[in-house]
Each structure stands twice: as structure tokens, then as C-alpha cells.
TrEMBL record:
Protein name listed in UniProt: 4Fe-4S ferredoxin
Listed PANTHER family: PHOTOSYSTEM I IRON-SULFUR CENTER, PHOTOSYSTEM I IRON-SULFUR CENTER-RELATED
Keyword Metal-binding among record annotations: yes
Regions crossing the membrane: 12-35
Gene3D superfamilies: 3.30.70.20
SUPFAM superfamilies given in the database record: 4Fe-4S ferredoxins
Molecular function via GO: 4 iron, 4 sulfur cluster binding; metal ion binding
InterPro entries attached to this UniProt entry: 4Fe4S_Fe-S-bd, 4Fe4S_Fe_S_CS, PSI_iron-sulfur_center, TAT_signal, TAT_signal_bac_arc
Keywords: 4Fe-4S, Iron, Iron-sulfur, Membrane, Metal-binding, Molybdenum, Transmembrane, Transmembrane helix
UniProt cross-references to NCBIfam families, sorted A to Z: TAT_signal_seq
A Pfam family: Fer4_3
Domain 4Fe-4S ferredoxin-type: 45-76, 83-116, 204-234
Species assigned in the record: Candidatus Marinarcus aquaticus
Domain of life: Bacteria
Length: 247
């Protein structure tokens, strides 16, 4: 009987240690994914990531006032920062509204109220990361139905705004033409300070300048099956194009 009790104690001891080990091991696997939250594209005016996570009260006010349905709230599948706002640029970029309503709606300071106009926004920087996908560079006309993905996203929203309808109408006009969408659809007040199309010997391609605010409209609207131009969140022009080129 004593042997049975001892065996039971040993079984419970090692079973508990085994479960603890698996839990810790899982934590080590999960933790890198949690860090991906720091690479999310945050709404305009977002303060530094650690401060943002501390200040954001997950109220969703920024989401409610966005006229383009650009802002989403993160869930458990997105790592840490559950309930905090972010933008998935391929689904819907930010259109740098004149009054920056998302910032005005933020009650906690997670979105800095010093961000008062589009030129104050610093979300990230656009990068032509996949030039071989770029339709302009390969002289491929914008295909028929290129805007279906953007139409579908818009049509799935409640309370579609006139701003979104105007966006779709303008985007549809590029069908069959040489692609200049990323430059011509840039929503900031002075788009030529952010991006333009230049010849590169094979065709044309977008060139990004220091006026880019990283809004993500170019990534959303890129007509390639997978975006040729993408946003690097929380990076500046100097971070990527100046310091990055020297590293």
C-alpha cells in the first residue's frame, strides 16, 4: 500500500512538472508572435508602441468616427494588445482626413492630439518591396476588375460613406490604363512630396519621398494580386531610405 501511495505521489509530481514544462514551452513559442503587435500599423497620432499599449483604453472611439472604415480592433489571433486599434493597409488604408477625427476622438492620449492635420501624421513609410509585381514597371495595363477587392471590402461595411463611394469611382477610372494608382491616389494634400512615378529603364515605378506619412492607401489600392508596395510601420523616410541604405 505504501508503494502504491509513493508511486502516486511520483506520478503527480512528474505529471505536474511535465504540464508546467509544456506551458512554459508554449509561452516561449507564443511570445515572438506577441511581439508582432509592435509591427502593426497604428492609427494617426499613435505614440510610441509601449506608451500606446499603456495609454489605450480600448474604447473603439477612433474606429467609430473613421469615415473610411480603416481602423480595426485586434483580437487574440493578433498577439498582445488585444482590443487596441490598428490598420490592415491591404484591406483599407488611412485616407488622412483633414481634421484627423480619430485623434480628436481619442480620450486617453494614445493618439497624440498634437496630430492636427495630415502633414502631422507619421505612421510609417511606403516601400516598393516587390518591384517584380509592379504593373507600371512591367508596362502591364491595369486589368479589368482590379478594384473588385476594394469594392467588396466597402460593400461589406455598415453605413458606407460618400467619401468611400468617391474613392471607388476614382479608382475604377484606372482600368485599362498604365498604372499610376499609388501616386495618383495618394490622399495627402501634397502627394508629390510623398510619391511619384519615375522611369527606371524597364517602365515606370513609384519613388517614395520624405513627405510620405505611411498611410497605407498605396498598399490597399495596388492592383497587383499581392501588393508590390507595402508600408513599414513606425519607420520614417530616414530610417529606411537613408540609414537603411548605409547599413
Amino acid at each position: 500500500m505504501a508503494n502504491i501511495k509513493e508511486d502516486r505521489r511520483q506520478f503527480l509530481k512528474f505529471s505536474t512538472l511535465g504540464i508546467l514544462g509544456l506551458t512554459l514551452g508554449a509561452g516561449m513559442v507564443i511570445s515572438p508572435y506577441a511581439l508582432q503587435a509592435e509591427m502593426r500599423l497604428r492609427p494617426p497620432g499613435a505614440v510610441k508602441e509601449n506608451e500606446f499599449l499603456a495609454l489605450c483604453i480600448k474604447c473603439g472611439q477612433c474606429l467609430q468616427v473613421c469615415p473610411y472604415h480603416s481602423i480595426k480592433l485586434s483580437d487574440m489571433a493578433k498577439g498582445h494588445g488585444i482590443g487596441t486599434p490598428y490598420i490592415d493597409a491591404r484591406e483599407r488604408g488611412c485616407y488622412s482626413c483633414t481634421a484627423v477625427p480619430c485623434v480628436l476622438a481619442c480620450p486617453s492620449g494614445a493618439l497624440d492630439h498634437k496630430t492636427e492635420k495630415p502633414e502631422d501624421i507619421k505612421m510609417g513609410i511606403a516601400v516598393l518591396e516587390f518591384p517584380d509585381r509592379c504593373l507600371a514597371r512591367t508596362n502591364t495595363p491595369v486589368p479589368k476588375g482590379h478594384s473588385k477587392r476594394v469594392h467588396d471590402f466597402t460593400n461589406n461595411q455598415n453605413n458606407v460613406t460618400q467619401l468611400e463611394i468617391d474613392l471607388l469611382n476614382k479608382l475604377d477610372e484606372f482600368e485599362g490604363k498604365q498604372c499610376t494608382i499609388c501616386a495618383d491616389m495618394c490622399p495627402i494634400p501634397n502627394p508629390l512630396s510623398a510619391i511619384s512615378m519615375i522611369g527606371d529603364g524597364e517602365g515606370k515605378k513609384p519613388e517614395v519621398y520624405d513627405g510620405c506619412i505611411g498611410c497605407g492607401a498605396c498598399e490597399e489600392l495596388c492592383p497587383a494580386n499581392e501588393a508590390a508596395i507595402v508600408i513599414k510601420p513606425r519607420m520614417s523616410y530616414d530610417d529606411y531610405y537613408i540609414k537603411g541604405s548605409n547599413s
